[in-house]
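Hi X.,

You mentioned you wanted examples for the new student's onboarding notes, showing what a folding record looks like when two proteins sit in one file. Here is a clean example. The first protein comes first, with its sequence line followed by its structure tokens.
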Amino acid sequence: MTIAQVAERTGLTAHTLRYYERAGLLREPPDRGGNGHRRYTERDADWIRLLTRLRATGMSIAGMRRYAELARRGEDTYAARKELLEAHRAEVLGKIEQLKDDLALVEYKINVYDKLMGDS
């Protein structure tokens, strides 16, 4: 796949894909065609989709880089990768709980205004 095709499939820009490569976030740099253009595999696209989910859940670039470094080192790092993801999961769950609390306050205030305005 070309960089444009991967960008379309992942929702990232070509600029971001190049940044991810420079930042060491990919398992391995994509192969280059005879014209020097990047050629991505389905495995590359799957990895990039994982990165987008990790980023969307708040993982830092440093955390993503650490995960990629571990993945490049192979099967010996399964336990370390799992530990990193478990720590990230705990952070995400904490954020979800905070968001639930924040949402409850917003809903409370909406109900207050409903009562003040006679909507309920």
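Then the second protein repeats the pattern, sequence line and then tokens:
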Amino acid sequence: MSVEKIYISYNNIHKLCQKAALEIKAAGRSVDCIIAIGGGGFIPARILRSFIKEEGKKNIPIQAIGLSLYEQLTDNVEVIGKEVVRTQWIDFGNLGDHLDSLIGKNVIIVDEVDDTRTTLHYALTELEKDVKQLQEKLGRTDEITKFSIFVLHNKDKPKKADLPQELFDSGRYIVGETVPDHWIAYPWEAVDIDEHTKHATAQGNI
């Protein structure tokens, strides 16, 4: 049985980022920092910045974090689950030295897809925890840091992890498009980009 594949073009990604930026602006929310989850979050984060940047103001900084899923094994080498592990993280000490920490800022976390939600849950939870620790260290516990999430695609499927309900209620969970639970082929993974774009065009993802 073949697995149905959804092909996504660069043009489609560009439009989804533009749509998200318009939604952010319409809600009157500013963005002070973008955190891209590598590697799928890098390209949408950069495109999103182009659309939410306000004329005459400095560029919004983009920070990168790297996360990987590793299989958890028993002594008998049986897979019992998957664990999210940091492979790259924000240097909060360096940010603090330059007075550009995340404290009191509006921060948006960007990834390409919300699949099982484990990666997004880990990223949000750990970033919130790190910011809280930094606030306590610097004596700035009265400042409020607001995190949002933007994904190009949300797979319509049961999730293995949760996000705070307040994120959805406040409109700070932003999705370009919700799609069925199929394999999503992104253009940056393509060997033959022309062939990839043909498939995306045939599916209307242009």
